[in-house]
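Quick illustration, no need to memorize.
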Amino acid sequence: MAPKYKLLYFPFRVIAEPIRFILAYVGADYEDVRIEFSDWPPLKPDTPYGTMPVLEVDGKKLGQSIPICRYLAKQYGLLAENDWDNAQIDAAVDAINDLRMSIKNFYFEENGSTKNNMKEKLMKEAVPFYYKKLEEMVKNNGGYLAGGKLTWGDLYLTTMLELFDHDLECEITKDYPHLATLRNKVVNIPSIKTWIEKRPKSER
């Protein structure tokens, strides 16, 4: 019997979207629960770490976006073929998340002058540093992050490329042809394309 999934997150894509991509890709049924900020405080104590997303699996709760992705990848065969390639995927995802945190700090900065300076520094330093590393990985691994096959890491990466373009208000990926090709490949997988077309509209 298939497990019963419930995914809880705020009404955004952000760090829940990799989970939704995985679930869409494998065709798993789940309840996509989007919680308004006003409804969050009384729910927070009942989450594993006081954060979302949370994935409920037959009533059991798993917190943290990346471990949720990795758990689902193990359940549905979206890991690489060996420990080395899986470690490379883990390292890439952690690096992507490091960049995400830097971009998040910029995105929510309220001081206009400070924000402009932060963006300039990001576009000169962190963004090209990480994107070049990821571009090289994809180039050297048959069009994927590792092992020459689609894994959860590629789905994670694709959602983050979308997020970064939004938050930085520019099409970064177009300057990195292997990343652009991978992203285009993922978003045109039929089940993921269907999800993108029907998913609720959100700011980010």
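The chain has a mean pLDDT of 97.
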